[in-house]
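User: I'm new to structure prediction. If I give you an amino acid sequence, what do you actually give back? Let's try with this one:
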Amino acid sequence: MNIGAKKLITLISVLLSIFVFFIFTSIASASYGEEKPPTPRIMIEKWVWNPASNSFVENLSVNQFLFLPDQDVKFKVEVKNTGDKDLEKVEVTDKLPKEVSFVSGPGSYDKEKHSLTFIIDKLNKGEAKSYELTVKVKKAEDLPSNVFCMSNLAEVRAENMINQDTASFCAQKQVLGVTKELPKTGPSTLPIALALTILTSSAAIFITKKV
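Assistant: Good question. You get back a string of structure tokens that encode the predicted 3D arrangement of the chain. For your 211 residues, that looks like this:
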């Protein structure tokens, strides 16, 4: 192999090495040298108040507590920014079941949609905010059956994210086994009942003696 060919091979090798070096340097820079963009995340949690334990719980079953007509039911909603980016204009909507009426809570209540909506202006990364609302079980004549359960849905929207959670509870129209009104027994009926008892007893004794 002559000197010119050797020089050409050496030059090509050097150029190839430089090219490979730049390729690997670019890949390393892209993988480790640049910061990843922040990731937004949002979460909502819903609880219902348990009057029996005086605490908020995720759900209330039939065996835990039964609400009655015209009784208030209290809820707590917590919205948390679980991402690494601050969020603005976070919208929270609480959709009420048809068996209850709205009493109080933040934001504005829409009677047509039967829902409560409010806006959190800013929620910093890692920050959580809690809110409470109260509803009332409707009157007995407006309830579907004696014992029934329902769910209260809470929804949060921020940027292009949606998260939901529910809290279920149960109610009953009336307390089973309780008579609304006892039979009336006035003083005028007592002597009559007593006289009939005496006459019946006397007749039975007389017939027994005759036999």
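You can read the tokens as a compact description of the fold. Here is one thing that stands out. DSSP finds two helices and ten strands in the chain.
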